[in-house]
Amino acid sequence: MPLKLEHPAFVSVDAEIFTQTFTPDCMTHACICRDEDDRPRNDACCRFGADVLLPEKEAILRRRAQVAAVLKAERRDPTGWFNEDDPERDPDAPGGILLRTATQQPNVETSGCVFLDHTGPRGCALHRAALEHDFDPAEIKPAVCRLYPLSASKRRLRLSPDFDWYSCAGDAGPSVYRLMRGELASIYGDGLVAELDQLEREHLRRRLRVAPSRGGADPRPNPGDTT
To answer: Which domain holds residue 201?
Structure first.
């Protein structure tokens, strides 16, 4: 159910973000692909690569030395980090174009983002590079990755279209909004979070139901009763 927003970036938000839950720690969650007969696969949400804005690509390349340092030797050439064969024209995107990160096997769409192919056990090389070289991951991590499992498109904030594909969705944990509240504030500002907080309170209040009395009897008086 979409709820109206009055914010420069969004006109609506799906109420599901206030009630659907998500694993609180992706790095310790053992991922399962529900859309592939429950096949185990860590970092499954990164298997297609990610959308990258031109300013985000430039930010990554400014840190090329630090990123390359955590990648496997065969992945350290920055010319192989992005798929620029079929850029998507988007007049609303900064730079007007959406690129994608390359996948580990260029002809296999589900082979995994190239930035998963690093020397650590799992997770994103961009995030790892930031932690190991003491800078903020937000400096180089694409917004689409920072927001997952949320999606921001056509001025609508909602669950990512692939939300139900992975076992992290619905896992015991906080609501998606509570989990991502800080990241939303970081990207879009405190004003958006203040508005979402109010919508969350109103939506959860509407979901409350009067608890039945013991024995299941309706506590409300019958209109025909007299005192």
So the answer is: 1-22+149-207
